Amino acid sequence: MQREIYDEDHEAFREVVKEFVKRYVTPEKAKQWDADGEVDRATMKAAAEHGIVGLSVPEEFGGAGMLMDYRFRSVVNEELIGCGHGSALAGAVGIHDDLAVPYIAHFGTDAQKAKWLPKMATAEILGALAMTEPGAGSDLRAARTTAKKVDGGYVVNGAKTFISSGKTADIIVTFVKTGEGNRPDAFSLIILEDGMPGFEHGKKLHKMGFPGHDTAELSFSDVFVPDENLIGGVEGRGFVHLMMNLPLERLSIGAVAAAVAEAGVKWTIDYTTSREAFGKPVIDFQNTRFRLAEMATTVDVMWAYVDRAMNLYRQGKLSADEAAKVKFWCTEREWEVLDQGVQLHGGYGYILEYPIARAFLDARVHRIYGGTNEVMREIVARSITGRK
Amino acid sequence: MTIAADSILVLLDTTPDGALAKSSAALLGAASTVGTPVALVLGDEAAAKAAAELGAATVLRAPAPDSQVGVVDALVAAAALARPDAVLASHSVDGREAAARFAVRARSGLVMDAIEVARDDQGVIARSSAYGGSYTVTSTVTHGAPVITVRQGAVEARAEARPLAEITLEVAASGVAAATTGSVEVAEKTGGRPDLRGAAKVVSGGWGLGSKEDFALVEQLADALGAAVGASRAAVDAGFVPSSAQVGQTGVQVAPQLYIALAISGAIQHLAGMQTAKTIVAINRDEDAPIFEIADFGIVGDVFTVVPQLIAEIEKAKA
Amino acid sequence: MRIVVLVKVVPDTNAERTLSLETGLAERATAALVADEIGERALEVALSYADAHEGTDVHVLAVGPEESTTSIRKCLAMGAASATHVVDAGLVGADLGLTAEVVAAALGRVGYDLVLAGNQSTDGMGGVLPVMVAEHLGLPSLTNLTAVTIGDAEVSGTRLSEDAAVGLSAPLPAVVSVTEALPDPRFPGFKGIMAAKKKPVEVLSLADLGLDADDLSTSRSIMLTIDARPPRGGGVKITDDDGDAAVRLSAFLAENHLI
User: Fold this and answer.
1) What is the per-residue pLDDT for C125?
2) What is the widest separation between alpha-carbon atoms in chain A?
3) pLDDT confidence of C34, banded at 50, 70, 90?
4) pTM score, two decimals?
């Protein structure tokens, strides 16, 4: 179904991303990323040169100024994912633009913005967000990484895990405890910089999917972080800041899920068209046709929902609760569509050379990260029942 | 000396050493199918003689000019003298550009890249192919003598040799500004192998050859057949051969009598450069390769097995 | 210096391109229109020069249907400063001769020191428009160049023809066409797209240029018939299981006098 959220600027930008994909996102490159476990910096910088990285950085700091408009970001997702071998890059760009830049752009002090954002627009500096700890996932108040006030800054101790871009990022927006107890105002966000004494990267995590995008454990032993790295310059605002970016975080996962599902339908149509069984293309069998009809319709509905959420987000009207619905619902439809796509690929759907197989493995985490889908349901339930 | 009333003025290209270009025989041959060939030769008497041997009933000769504008000036003088029913030139870079400039100056209609010329009751018409041979288009011009460029290697007709009947052409310089020619570097010929453009036979290799070293197999078969060597874009991108060998939409478009595709799958882009070939032979391991859909003779098999045997068979047949 | 780059809008070669069997015109609905890649290479030559020489004005000239706007905007996003788009119903199905007249007239209007173009489009494959424009304007032409050097008052380069590589030079103004040997064109980014929205595009009709498509004094090429190529008959396809394929192919070639 024709989508209505894009204008000619988005379509022109789509051509840019397509050309970028043609020149920089080759199957060979993707293999290299998978082998290295990370996306190379040169590609990130090239993407930044064309405005594909840095979309959320405000214009005055050299970015595109699209922090409150997810449409260009969605175009990036659609094209990087659609090509069949750009999911690692899409992930790396998403972490930077959707999870790191916003905290500095929205809540950073003027000095923090001036210091970090211009280089984040060019990908000279890449960011990540560290919330999850070995003993605290969705239950953030159980976080135990502490930042003790000392003269001129903080001393940070603790550990974070499952940090996307954790190895490649230069700066990590880190959720820490600056106060006592677990009241919301006991927590803050502080920027840890790669190379600070006492900041170590743990072992490389072997994941089910996204082999080309780094996910790391981080450990902090008496890391001294200067005052100027405390986001917003005021303690105790960590929870509030996280809450304020939740709509974008959840929306972005929903939008990625729609892009992946759309690509999954395309790959499945391509495959079943070229593959013959019993003397005719697989796509001519009624089962294939019915399943494809369902998959394609599901994708249309996903976009209808995501597009509406993108429009609300643009107007500042997308609440974290509403975004939670988008996140869990879209990632589950994504999973169903991909599962069906794998099935229609037959044995080849189980072979990692085929994008449908890789997307299937990648997609599993969409129901887990950014808040598990169970937590999303609980949030939605609370909002509609008014009961905790 | 009179010039035939149904004259077809033919601009013959010359090579840097002054000889007639290979395209000359087909151009005069094409002209002879629709009228009396009158050659415009810009060179020495030997070249004029060669033109007569290739079927020019009259040769209009002037010294070789030092610029494209000079060629066009000569064409203007020749057309004024011969009052031809059509002007033919090779669709080579030099030929087509001179023809096009002439068409502008003479306010004549221009038909490019014909693969055949013919006559209907109104005059000379041309057939050409569009979009890499997917369509055949017949064209002519609204009035006057059409200026037609002819694709190299596409016309089989040859004219009978004639005794030399030469007219020295007086060329008035138009004074149109021209670029100055400096160094001339004659293009390297690859070991006596024919040029891809205009070759009667072409053997092309694809990415499936695997390496630059193994691409030699293509060259061996080409040499056995006296064919030119071509390649798919994938083989060029992989560095097996220089890009000048690329056959396809964005490379050289060929229309040979025989085209042999070795380990080429047959992407649309490639087909666009060779599907007007008269006979197409394909050898590929993948039985589903699209090239088989247009091949007159297809072999599902390994090129490294079949081609050496084929070379041996050809040598046997030639002996 | 004002460099005018001629950009042709063509059906995307990556898609199946079709001609209408009724009109002989390209069926636009079936393939997206894009700026011809070789024209983008020519634009790259101009932009690289402009990058290194302040005060260079790169202008894009396109003759084509309404839908060309997207491609013209792309050229502006790449870095051209302004553009002229000649669009007119009278140009539907225009032959090379008329197109060259239109380009020459438009060039006369916008002004130029150097005209740059691709050597050959991927749809028409004529490869002569640049020299025809040069002939109209009485300019020297340096075409099919595999290398170009633009100077303050002259331009030079290496022309590749079938038999030779020839060094050419001419004083400006001149018409230059380049081949695929030149570097890949740059591609725009987000900022280029936004900047392009503010750049001027002058839209001209034939009347604006004082031309009449129906003027019959100049002979035009016309299409008499058009046929889709008959699908090649599914020829012989054999499998080399018995190891005799080479022998059979050799016999086939001999039968057809191809050995």
Assistant:
1) 61
2) 78
3) confident
4) 0.82
